Amino acid sequence: MSTMPPLETVTIVTDNGPVRINKSDYDAAPDQYKLADETPAAAVDPVALRDDGPTIAEYVAAGYPASKYPPQGYASKSTDEEIAAAVAKETADKTDLAGSMSSAASGAAAPQLMVSKEGRKFFVVDPAGVKVERDGIESKGYAAEQDAWNAILALPR
């Protein structure tokens, strides 16, 4: 089985920020693109993690378990100590659960909400991927992912 050499790329400037394109596409029509100023970097990991996700506090506040942080595909924005403290609190809360079962039975569990990207917009969705439509959530989506997370965090508990 033969392996192909890595594809050469260049970074160009677009209205949405820098974008990497195939060097052959740039070479075919260099007058159509504006090269971004960049310094040569080490080889990019093809499975690079996104760095625009929530902190552990934001993640837990949105209803997700601390033990599942960071979300799949995202780099951690919290220190190891912050994560360990949140997981320890989650574990302690689970052990206290037996004493508070009667109060939990009277109210519905808070729904877990996530952020999904469609085109250039970010939408608040439920675990099934269905867009959430309710007060405090923009039905037309958000321009930035952090704005969608902030909307989730601002929802009343």
Structural class per helix/strand content?
alpha+beta
SS field, number of helical segments: 5
Mean pLDDT: 80
DSSP, total strands: 4
Describe this structure in words.
This protein is α+β, with helices and mostly antiparallel strands and 157 residues long. The chain folds into 3 domains: 7-39, no CATH class; 48-97, no CATH class; 111-157, no CATH class. Helix content is 28%, strand content 14%. It has a two-stranded antiparallel sheet. It has a two-stranded antiparallel sheet with strand order 3-4. A hairpin with a 2-residue loop joins strand 1 and strand 2. The longest helix has 16 residues, at 80-95. The chain is extended. The relative contact order is 0.10.
Index terms:
157 residues; alpha+beta; two-stranded antiparallel ribbon; two-stranded antiparallel sheet; 4 strands; 14% strand
